[in-house]
Each structure stands twice: as C-alpha cells, then as structure tokens.
Write a structure and sequence with these properties.
alpha/beta; Aldehyde Dehydrogenase, Chain A, domain 1; 2 domains; six-stranded mixed beta sheet; about 40% helix
Length: about 425
C-alpha cells in the first residue's frame, strides 16, 4: 500500500502517450511469452491447454492493447455557463486501487483489472486467488520489463481471509474492484464503508440460455454445451439454466446429452482434452454435492451425473459433464450457482414463459437466445434482465463491450468505455472572468 501510494503522483502525471506505449509493450510481452503463460495457467487452474492458448492468453494481450488506446482519449468538457465564467471539467485518476481477482480466468481477470487502471493513471495492489497466483506473478515480471515503474502495480499473493480482507477496509485505498462470488462481494461492500471507497463488483450468475423451436438446433446444441462446459463450467456467466421450448425439448436434450457424453475428459495439458479437472478439492466437493442434490430433487441424469475417477482420472478433481433433464426452475440446482460442468434443462411453453422463468433468479449477469426470428430475438433480449445477452452465440466477450451484471450479479462494469469510467473521477473548475 505504501509503495502504491508513493508511486501514485508520479504515475498520474505521466504523459498519456507514454502510458499508451507501456500498455502496448505489455501486450507484446504477453504475446512473446504466450506459451509459458498458457502452460502456467493450465498447471495452476487445470483448464484445457487449448483454452489457455486460444482464449485466456491472447485475450489478456488484447485487453492491454484496447486500453492502450484509451490513455490519450480521456477528455474533460467545457460546460455552458454564464458569460462571466469559464466552466470546465477535468478527468483524474481515482488513486490507489485494490483489486481482487478469481481463480477461473487468472491472467484474463488480471488484465481486465490492471489495464484500465493503468490507462487512467491509477496505481494498483492486485491480489490473485490463492489457488492460481502464478500467471499474475509472471505478469508482474513482464510489467517491470515493459518499463512500468516500481510501485505502480503490486502483486500481493495471499488468502482471501487475510490479504483480501486487508484490502477492502484499508483507509489508504480509494477504490476496490472485485470479481468473485456474490456472498464475498457483499462482505467486501460492507468492509469498504470506512472511507466510502469506490466499489465495483462482478459477481455470480445463474444465466438462462433460451432455445426456441425455430432455432438452428445443431448450432444451438454446440452453443449450449460451450456455454456450460467451457472451463469446466467454472464461469460466472455460464449458461447453467438451459431453457428449451416444449415442442423440441426431448429432441434437443437428446442432442445435448449425446454431445456431453462425447467430450474427452483428461489432464489440462493434453491437447485433446475438452474437460479438465476442477480447480480444487473444495470445488470438486461442492459440485459433487450438487449432483446428489439434483438427483434427490427428482431431476433425471441425461449425461454424466457423477465424478470421473476411472484410470488416470483418479489423480485429479474430475467431474463428468452433466446434463439434468426434467428440471423445474424452482429446484435448488436451478437457482444456486454450482460453478461446475452441470446444466439444468428446463422446458418452457412460449416466449412469455421463457422470459418469466429466465428472469426468476437472484442473478442477472448474462443470457443466451437461440432463434431464427430476428424480431423475437430482440424482444427477448430487451425483456431479459441481464448485463449481457448473446443471440445465436454464447460466452463471447470483447474488450470494447462493457461486461457487468444486474440484480445480485454486481455493481459497475468492466471493459469498454464503462470500464474506464470506474477508474476516473470528475473535477469541476469554474473561473471568474
């Protein structure tokens, strides 16, 4: 904290064009070390190396490139006023930012936090998840190599209940940004009240993925499965509630069950692996518990439904990709975030019913809509209460597009111009002429 505070004034005064150069350099270094970073990510998290190489690492570099362009595009305004005054605004960095990131996309989440903060002239104390600190530490090394001054970004590995808990109430922190569970987000909000620091929270989800009978069912099958099984379902915006129109429910759930059963489970370092191990014993036990809850609630197992522990799979925290059918939206497996490769297929009658059930949740992070009817797609996208709605696709993000949640899925946004706004404060200046 002392290092971040000591570095702030000088970093905030750095020319925007110089910050642009540094952020571009960071992106280049991430690309240069992509193979090492991808392997570290997979070894730490367990995710398939294919995903690390093609999603996480290039995505992190792209975020730094995107925000490199913003450093020179942050403007104040001249405001209409009396002719006796010159009235204008300045946009200034917030200050020292405490950032707490999760274990599911370690480097990508670090980039979502660090890049906009640096672009605006803030300094950072970043706490990576205790399960997956390695790529954040490697990134710290690359930041120094790029020329970011010491103290501007401080990587602080540690446990949530110690290092994380020290960040939220700290009187020297001007903003805290957190990605993680809703329950922890609420605790961070309470702890941040001491100096009324700014808070942004990207929290949990139980996102509806809605398939209408007029959709391209083959494309929707692939999209629905990627929507839940990407990164073993350890994704805040995973399409874990799969709503299917009644008239195609049996046909479609047969398709997704077959698809799920054909996914290769194995070590993340195997290039052929589609489903790697879960991140930890704790997460493995959590997901296993929900599998049993689903069965007790009366849901039927279309695929999976158990841990995977055959042969070499005994060595890791593997869970078979699971499709539950006959699920009611009121069931525990349909209302609580499982954060694993488990999808609940729920039938619906019509468009009104799909929206009604889709919105019947505490969360509002994301949603998917599958239909060939463009008018219906836009109606449903407007009616669903979620921060992101994908139409005929799922789980796509772009550094230029704001990402955030409604309801108990969070406060504030990351990415895009909205992500910049969270790291700036506005000062009004009035000059009497």
């Amino acid at each position: 904290m002392a290092a971040a505070r000591a570095a702030f004034d000088r970093w905030a005064a750095t020319k925007p064009s110089q910050r642009t150069i540094l952020l571009f350099k960071i992106a280049e270094l991430i690309d240069k070390h992509a193979e090492e970073l991808a392997l570290l990510e997979t070894l730490d998290n367990g995710k398939a190396i294919f995903e690390s190489k093609n999603v996480d690492i290039p995505g992190a570099a792209e975020v730094f490139r995107y925000y490199a362009g913003w450093s020179t595009k942050i403007y104040g305004e001249t405001n209409p006023s009396s002719e006796d005054f010159f009235n204008y605004t300045l946009r200034e960095p917030v200050g020292v930012c405490g950032q707490i990131i999760p274990w599911n996309f370690p480097l990508l989440m670090a980039s979502w936090k660090i890049a906009p903060a640096l672009a605006c002239g803030n300094t950072v104390v970043l706490k990576p998840a205790e399960q997956t600190p390695l790529t954040a530490l490697f990134l710290g090394k690359l930041l120094l190599e790029a020329g970011v001054p010491k103290g501007v970004v401080n990587i602080l590995p540690g446990y949530g209940e110690t290092a994380g808990a020290a960040i939220a109430p700290h009187m020297g922190i001007d903003k805290v940004a957190f990605t993680g569970s809703t329950s922890v987000g609420k605790e961070i909000l309470k702890a941040s009240a001491g100096n009324l620091k700014r808070v942004s929270l990207e929290l949990g989800g139980k996102s509806p993925n809605i398939v209408f009978r007029d959709a391209d069912l083959d494309a929707a099958t692939v999209g629905a499965m990627l929507g839940i099984f990407f990164n073993q379902g350890q994704v805040c915006c995973a399409g874990s509630r799969l709503f299917v129109e009644e008239k195609v429910y049996d046909e479609f759930t047969d398709k997704v069950g077959k698809f799920a059963g054909g996914l290769k489970i194995g070590p993340g370092t195997d290039p052929e692996t589609k489903i790697g191990p879960l991140v930890s014993k704790e997460q493995h036990e959590r997901v296993s518990r929900y599998l049993e809850i689903g069965k007790k609630e009366g849901a039927k197992v279309k695929a999976g439904g158990d841990v995977a522990n055959d042969g070499d799979l005994k060595k890791g925290y593997f869970v078979k990709p699971t499709v539950f059918t006959g699920v009611k939206n009121s069931m525990q497996i349909a209302q609580e975030e499982i954060f694993g490769p488990v999808v609940s297929a729920i039938p619906f009658k019509d468009e009104k019913d799909a929206v009604l059930q889709g919105n019947d949740t505490l969360y509002g992070l994301a949603a998917g809509v599958w239909t060939r009817d463009v008018s219906k797609a836009h109606r449903v996208a407007r009616a669903i209460k979620a921060g992101t709605v994908w139409i005929n696709c799922y789980n796509l993000t772009d550094p230029a597009s704001p990402f955030g949640g409604f309801k108990q899925s969070g406060w504030g946004y990351e990415n895009g111009q909205d992500g910049i706004e969270g790291y700036l404060k506005t000062k009004t200046v009035m000059v009497q002429l």
